Amino acid sequence: MKKLIALLMSVMIVLGSLAGCGSKKEETTKAQETTKAQETTKAQETTAAKEETTAAEASDLAYVKERGKLVVGITDFEPMDYKDESGEWIGFDADMARGFAESLGVEVEFIEITWDNKALELSGRIIDCVWNGMTLTDEVKSAMECSNAYCNNAQVVIVKADVADQYQDVESLSDLAFAVEAGSAGEEEVKALGLNYTPVSTQADALMEVAAGSSDAAVIDSLMAAAMVGEGTGYDELTYTVGLNSELYGVGFRKGSDLAAALNDYFKEAYGDGTMEKCAETYGIQAALIEQ
Length: 292
Hints:
- Residues 1-19 form the signal peptide.
- Pfam families: SBP_bac_3.
- It comes from Fusibacillus kribbianus.
- Residues 69-287 form the Solute-binding protein family 3/N-terminal domain.
- Residues 24-54 are annotated as: Disordered.
- The structure is a single chain.
- By secondary structure, this protein is of the alpha/beta class.
- The protein folds into 2 domains: 61-152 and 248-290, Periplasmic binding protein-like II (D-Maltodextrin-Binding Protein, domain 2, 3-Layer(aba) Sandwich), CATH 3.40.190; 155-245, D-Maltodextrin-Binding Protein, domain 2 (3-Layer(aba) Sandwich), CATH 3.40.190.
- Helices cover 47% and strands 23% of the residues.
- It has 10 helices and 14 strands.
- The strands form 3 sheets. Strands 1, 4, 5, 6, 7, 13 and 14 form a 7-stranded mixed β-sheet that branches. It has a 5-stranded mixed β-sheet with strand order 10-9-11-8-12, sandwiched between helices. It has a two-stranded antiparallel ribbon with strand order 2-3.
- α1 packs across α2.
- The protein is elongated, with a radius of gyration of 33 Å.
- It starts with a helix and ends with a strand.
């Protein structure tokens, strides 16, 4: 009898043990299935995030919209970009940039840049575009994705008014010491002519050099000259004489950026409904949309 009882207890222990193993195996399987499901979900989320990042990286338009802000690189350049009495950036370019940002459903932020570093500022994503009366030179077009031209311009020579009659052609400029903005179309012109010059940070600095007598002459944009030089301006003792070229203004984006095409569409709309012309009249310039 004792042997029978002992045998039955042994069988029960074995069966209990087998049942326990089965339960543990089921629990392990369920845990493994849960872990796999979690890993699959995480992998899907990671893939989706990567796809969003890749899309933003591939598309500047998507990047700007996702961030909710268009960062515009400028310099103090009246009548295109300059500050009013309250310190707000205004001007033809500033106002048009605001309108473009609004059309994208984002805010606009203006950052003053060193003009000679504009391409680096773009590639480093410090700014999204250069919108500052920028001449569409071959160098600019090779380094940036540029919009269609929206304004005609020229580089002109600035001298003191009391000696202006001595400098009415290119040949008369050879003995002058010039101040020009580094990296500008003006610098390209004086270089091409082999003239003696000192690079300065901005076109406004070039004007100050001439007014102070530190330089004999400057080369700046004709639009800026019309706004800042001559009777009724802060530089009434200066005037402009020789025109060195004719050129076009455009906006620069990162190479391959889809924002350039978006801006061209905005320009067409603004030009067609009169918005661009009205803005140009406000700042005394002539807008001329030129598709390339």
